[in-house]
Amino acid sequence: MAAQNATDAQVVTGPAKGPDGVRDRETVTEQQHLDRVYRRLEEKIHEAEFLMDDAAKRGQVGTPGALAERDAQVFRAGVHLNRLNSEFEDFLFGRIDLLRGKDGKKGPDGAYTSVEPADDAVRDGRAEIAETLHIGRLGVLDADYAPLVIDWRAPAAAPFYRATPVAPGRVVRRRVIRSKGRKVLGVEDDLLRPELTTTLAGETLPVVGDGALMAALGQARSHTMRDIVSSIQAEQDLVIRAPAASVTEVEGGPGTGKTAVALHRAAYLLYQDRRRYAGGILVVSPTPLLVAYTEGVLPSLGEEGQVAIRAVGSLVDGAEADTYDEPAVARIKGSSRMLKVLRKAVRGALDLARPATGRPAGQLALGEDEPPAARSVPDRLRVVAFGARVELDAQELARIRTTALGGTAPVNLLRPRARRLILDALWAKAGGPRRWSDPELAAEARRAFDEDITTEDDFLAFLDAWWPELTPRRVLAALADERRLGRWSRRVLNPREVRLLARSLARLDAAGRGPLSVHDVALLDELETLLGTPARPRAPRELDPLEALSGLEELMPQRAESRRERAERIAQERRDYAHVIVDEAQDLTPMQWRMIGRRGRHATWTVVGDPAQSSWSDPDEAAAARDEALGTRPRRRFRLTVNYRNPAEIAELAAKVLALAMPGSESPAAVRSTGIRPRFRVVGGGLARAVRAEARHLLDEVDGTVGVVVPMARRAEARQWLAGLGERVVALGSLEAKGLEYDATVVVTPAEIADESPAGLRVLYVALTRATQRLTVLAGERDDPDAAGVPDLLRD
Ligand SMILES: Nc1ncnc2c1ncn2[C@@H]1O[C@H](COP(=O)(O)OP(=O)(O)OP(=O)(O)O)[C@@H](O)[C@H]1O
């Protein structure tokens, strides 16, 4: 690991490569340790199987005590089996050799806890290694409870990530072990106190190779993200292990590891406090593509099904957004001004249909399949009471509705109140209060009166039509009527905005069915809160006593749902999380912040983002909404400074756009350079041909993936351009590129991307920072390319 804490973008080169003999010997040493670890794991598997067996027998005894004991044993044994049987690519990946510490105290993992060396640990530039720790994905103790492997999240593992030559603590040598399954492939060392002569078991400490981090960064990319557990850098480790109190805010430019850090932090929090966080962490991602790209990371860290990772357009159950609004519409839908409009809409929506003049209540057409908006709102109610007809007319009904709607309670929850007011009015009109002088008899008569009326089918039909239970989708669809929307948004939206918004929602039918955009989903969520869901009797759920033990389901194959199903179920059942992680936070609109805020009212938060990559046009408004969602909770801020994704040559080009997009902001320092400069091509004989040719060229150049980033408006056609080129290449709209990375990218017509929205330059900056190895820029006419094909925006 050569570049630990390479905050100034310089690779701290490790010591010279050891001779092959030393390398082989050290590899054998680590192989022996790994063999020991696996032998111990096998013993544990046998133990676990025995426990499972034994527990099953105890279960047959059948007393409550025996059952509880069986449950606990099955659970523990199951946890072991499940973990031990997992195929880890590199179960063991690190080792640190440490000096004697200040005191002799040991932690629960069997390692010494002292961070600093004892005063006399070094004498005359000589020291002995007093402790060697191996770091891996899970902790393993030997039969005597001595640590064979320390879990990467345990406090004792922190020096592996944090020690630097400037502040080495007790660490003398840090070793990255490359292994696959049971085989050690090689080791790379990093000497943190090169000035010392250090001995290990009497021999001079051998040191081998360098470049573990660089090897990781240079690897070909696939369509799924890898974990970085063996090469987390010091500044990243500080974020991952930051205490979960209140809000942890992380900023950093493209490629600084924000997403990786956020996911590793989720795993760390689970390790720290499983009771609190299991099933209770929500990660919000900007796009379904980024969800798909990142969702394998937590399972590879041994945390399966415990964290809900959801795209911001999929946070509302049953609403899967697959459409992007044009920027002007997105801007309206995302703005907090929409809150005022929606507040009016939920109350106004009760009057959606035209009054059905002259039609008596009880003869209303209320066909089940009829869309709600087509139903008529009755303008009078007639009942028979005390042998006479009693009627409430349109004016009286309107008055009752206004009274019922007073206050801010959710509209659907006000229906019982409205019903009561109607019965009061009918009772009064029928002369009920005058008929009985005895209060008890009067109360009895009133009860009978209410019961008679409310069990009439006609009355129930009236109520359903006059105060229907509104759904968020129905109200959203109601905004598609320009005149109605104009009324509800008076002095909030201007006529042009009203037109744009209404037109964009015309995609939905009257019941709100139809394609939703990402921004519609936040509106639906807001509407759900404003409308409220009336309590309904629930079907009693059959309880299995084993379910009381958290995490058990995933261990019982015969009953288990798939892991993905489980994660989805957790997400559906939970509305309020213990920890909310927001990735690409700079892109959230005020309405989206409100939606996410509702899911983390009692949560602690980790918020990662980069203002320079924001595709939201009004950052101040979004910042205000973010403040509101996060409330007054104290915030701890971190900054990541090193770009691990882009080689310096690509980062340098992107920095030119950054200077235009956000003058004065700093680019993160690229940690490596490839010597390969970005390529420029001018679109000559047609865009499709040029893009296809360039994609082909790059597929030959790299082993992994190629991403072709196009303006949003060209998204659909771009997929056709690449047809038949295979799975390594994908086309994506500029907004979809967020958070993703490819070995090589083609950025198509930068000026068009920049012109697509007020935040277009920042969107272009995102597009230019996706490549790990190669970048080609294809300039169109609007790019005004120079003789070398360099677009105007990318020139010095
Ligand atoms: N310590 C590390 N060791 C190895 N690889 C790393 C490390 N840190 C980051 N990376 C790699 O760098 C790349 C960028 O990381 P990541 O996507 O998390 O960055 P980001 O800050 O979220 O970027 P963006 O803002 O562009 O979305 C990933 O391939 C990640 O695996």
From TrEMBL:
Entry-linked PROSITE patterns: UVRD_HELICASE_ATP_BIND
Record has Nucleus as a keyword: no
Bias-annotated ranges (Polar residues): 1-10
Gene3D superfamilies in alphabetical order: P-loop containing nucleotide triphosphate hydrolases (3.40.50.300)
Regions crossing the membrane: none
Highest taxon, organism lineage: Bacteria
Composition skew (Basic and acidic residues), residue ranges: 20-29
UvrD-like helicase ATP-binding domain location: 231-647
Keywords from the named record: ATP-binding, Helicase, Hydrolase, Nucleotide-binding
A Pfam family it matches: UvrD-helicase
UniProt entry tagged with the keyword Transcription: no
Binding site for ATP: 252-259
Segments of this protein annotated with the region Disordered: 1-29
InterPro entries (alphabetical): DNA_helicase_UvrD/REP (IPR000212), P-loop_NTPase (IPR027417), UvrD-like_ATP-bd (IPR014016), UvrD-like_helicase_C (IPR027785)
Official protein name in the record: HelD family protein
